[in-house]
Structure prediction request, 335 residues.
Amino acid sequence: MIDEKQLLNKIFSVNHNTFSSVCNDVFEYQYLNNTTFNQWCRLLKKEPVKQEGINSLNDYIDKIPFLPISFFKSHEIKTTEFTPAITFESSGTTQQNTSKHFVKDLAVYEESFLKGFHLFYGDINKYCILALLPSYLERTGSSLVLMADKLIKLSGHTQSGFYLNDLEALQKTLVELEASKQPTILLGVTFALLDFLELYPIELKHTIIMETGGMKGRKKEMTRMEVQKQLMKGSGVEIVHSEYGMTELLSQGYSFGKGIFNCPPWMKVLVRKEDNPLHVSTVGKGLINIIDLANISSCSFIATDDVGIVYEDGSFEVLGRMDNSDIRGCSLMYN
Prediction:
């Protein structure tokens, strides 16, 4: 019998050589303990394979049934029965159903985003964290707000904090931090960052701008290059960082510029063909599938509505969304 605690230890210590084996363990665990995922597997006539035949992800990637992300709107996606410690919910209009991610143990989410952050940015306590997340702060159930709040607290910097509508205070804080050469991360939803830098253009030399996507109809549709060009023009930075995450995931990808994202070791991005969704590849262009092993209490194998490219080194780019998919609050609007 697969033990969840043992699996978690494996997940957050996984590396390139052990990923396939741990992935198959998670597949088997969720196949046995997740009713919706099990039904989906049986419908597609898929089941876990024997470990002996697994040397790489390519050996059995076609054996994994990726659950359509829309199931998070229509079903309770749970591995084992439990009362959620927290439920993350996507934003949406009153006409839309929202995705719900039932999290069994909040500590798993925190371990995932903290280890991921450390992997890409180092120790959190060397940064001042400024969060510009209007619309997210104004509702409950946002995983992004919870992550930002934890990063703010762990930074230990007296000027770290959320900025909702007081853009003048944010500008003043940034001026002071720049004067003291304090490494800073300005984490913000895209439309809010654009609004801020349009009103208060500033020269930033010690600040990382990290956009999380999200326009919510607040601005005209723009390509990623157009967005980043405007952010660079208003701030003087040479590159704009990005975070790729969603309600249905407990892990994030990060971009250090040009929209090319990388994942932590326990997360993989793959692509499927639009005309043959069961054909999944580790490289190429198509619709994005995600393996997020941190999703141990929901489903680790998700077929998203995003369109993208996965490169030979495992990095990926998001090109947009399927035409017939719902427009979500934090969905990318880029072409």
Summary: DSSP finds nine helices and 15 strands in the chain.
